[in-house]
User: What shape does this take?
Amino acid sequence: MDAILIAARLALYVDLAALAGLPMFWWSMADLTMTPARRIALAGLALGGLALSAFWLIASAAAMAGTPPFPADADLIATLLRDTPIGSVMAWRAAALAVALLLLAVVPRTPAVAIAAAGAAATLAGVGHAGAGEGAAGWLHCVADGLHAVAAAGWFGALLALTGGVIGRASSYRSTYALHRFSLFGTVFVATLVVTGAINTVMIAGIAALPTLASTLYGRLLIAKLALFGAMLLLAATNRWRLTPRLVREGAAAIPALRRSLAVETALALAIMILVAALGTLDPTAAP
Assistant: This one.
């Protein structure tokens, strides 16, 4: 596996997930107006998305050519942009990020920014395994993978916002309100992740290969990802059904336990992103 390419993919995933997920969370909280601090943070993430997309492109070209990323191979990069789906995906992503930046400057309303940022996150589907599909099956795979990316971003953004609020010592009332209000949206995100994840697995590996998936590196990393996802579900359920009621009963005394749980859940989300970044560089059909 190419460590530089994996690092580029990981940084891009984290950036776009935070960019899309944070305004999605604020929207779910009916918090529709951007503060100056939020506008600056999201603008930085949008600019970071543009820079990291360029770095990912350079790293991808280097991995294909088997050469160091710098100096960049301008001819190969031009070929990728001109003759592969990467060009159109990069154009759509750049347009979505530009719209997000414009909205942050002119119309800083949370829903509009969230939609533009989610569009940027969805383009991650076009440069992974889903982007290699053709015909109706290829479109189904791209749509499923795009929804998967947006749902993952929504969950990740909520974790960042909730962790920041609890660690920042938000009042127990505000923490309880945020956890309760997000529970419905979190359920939708989880359901979307489960359904689209199943579609992606079948589309990438094929039904016939599922029994032997554990014998390949791709399959073992995928199983590790599913195990981490299961752990996140357990923590989310604990937060919702155990720690949130405790927060109602005990107030600020219950915040340390909630803080630890959210921090662990966020760490698991980052670990999943590392695995996803590595999975995207592997051939799932490679022989064991």
Remarks:
- The mean pLDDT is 88.
